[in-house]
Design goal:
Radius of gyration: 33 Å
Structural class: alpha+beta
Number of helices: 10
Order of helices and strands: HEEHHHEEEEHHEHEEHEEEHEH
Shape: elongated
Strand content: 15-25%
Mean pLDDT: 84
Low-confidence stretches: 187-191, 329-345
CATH topology of the largest domain: Alpha-Beta Plaits
Helix content: 40-55%
Number of domains: 2
Oligomer: single chain
Strand order of the largest sheet: 2-1-6-5-4-3
């Protein structure tokens, strides 16, 4: 019986040795894998102390593994929200909860030297077979270039490539939002409150510049016009190039009287450009039509049509002046009057 016991004990010891060796091999394989992957990886224990950092994590955080191991996570890894600047919490899940992986694509890592790096992070809890929390695995990637490209693409999608102003699509979207807000507040707002002013700007004599100087001259002039318009407006106002030589402005929370003053200032600024191309001076101007954005003003297309018709009326009156669209109930009469003016312009 004793011989059998000894044999069984030795077999058990052998199995333990084999299991330990296999576990060591698996641990080493995991370590080499984490050291080799292109993502940064940091692991912590249940007390939030750093137990592992791979070389990419060292590079991105600016903290060497020798300095980081055993330290609390905040000593090594500090990330904030890109928009709010608030620290992004990296903590254990609530007791009894397995805690799914937490993904964040708006994180900014603050390095040891206080420089910043846009990152995309995934934080996953480590839960053992007894449902006990054992630590965290934080996997993060340098997302700086990708996020910069996203911002560039978003800017390009919303802005005119030539002038840098808002393009037609983004301007119409902003106008729709304002019209919707005005409609919602119109019932409770006092006179003038919640009202914005829309301005349709069409350049006078621009075709002559294009015909004599070519498209390069026209493009140079459009850039100067854009800067001139921006120089008149306040920081809260929105200006766009709708296409060709047509521009548009939204004066937020502005009165009709204030809009006329701003429109006259824009006309003066454009008239004063003194544009010269290939030694030849060009005199240009602008005609402007105004229409309010307020409750009951109709759809955005209707507002633009009223301001467009008013702009044609300004051209018919001799160009270089401002015309205000009539009240909505006179829209039909105005539209009829605008038809021959469109051909004349």
């Amino acid at each position: 019986g004793s011989l059998t016991d000894i044999t069984q004990r030795k077999e058990a010891e052998a199995r333990l040795i084999v299991s330990a060796a296999m576990l060591a091999d698996e641990k080493e394989r995991l370590r080499v894998t984490l050291q080799s992957i292109g993502d940064a990886v940091i692991c912590t224990d249940a007390a939030n102390r750093v137990t592992f950092m791979n070389p990419i994590a060292e590079k991105l955080t600016g903290v060497a593994a020798g300095d980081g191991l055993g330290k609390t996570l905040g000593h090594v890894y500090w990330a904030v929200d890109e928009e709010t600047g608030q620290r992004i919490g990296v903590a254990r899940p609530p007791a009894g909860s397995p805690g799914p992986a937490d993904h964040n694509s708006r994180a900014v890592l603050i390095r040891r030297d206080d420089t910043r790096c846009s990152i995309r992070q995934v934080v996953s809890p480590i839960i053992n077979e007894r449902a006990e929390f054992c630590g965290l695995v934080i996997v993060f990637q340098d997302f700086t270039d990708a996020r910069a490209l996203q911002r560039q693409l978003a800017h390009a999608a919303a802005h005119d490539a030539l002038t840098g102003l808002a393009n037609r699509s983004s301007f119409i979207h902003a106008m729709e939002d304002l019209a919707d807000q005005s409609g919602k507040t119109g019932a409770t707002a006092s006179a003038g409150d919640g009202e914005h002013q829309f301005m349709f700007i069409d350049l006078d004599h621009f075709k002559q510049v294009n015909d004599t100087g070519g498209h390069a001259a026209g493009d140079a002039l459009l850039k100067q016009v854009a800067n001139a318009i921006r120089g008149v407006l306040g920081p809260g106002d929105l200006v766009a190039r709708l296409g060709g030589d047509e521009f548009a402005v939204i004066l937020k929370s502005g009165s009709a009287a204030g809009a006329r003053i701003a429109a006259c200032s824009i006309i003066d600024a454009i008239r004063g450009l003194n544009f010269t191309w290939d030694g030849r001076a060009h005199s240009i101007g602008a005609s402007i039509g105004l229409a309010p954005i307020r409750a009951g003003c109709g759809e955005v297309d209707e507002i633009i049509a009223r301001a467009d018709a008013a702009c044609y009326a300004a051209k018919a009156a001799g160009r270089g002046c401002v015309s205000t669209a009539p009240d909505e109930d006179a829209e039909g009469e105005q539209a009829q009057a605008a038809k021959p003016l469109a051909a004349a312009s």
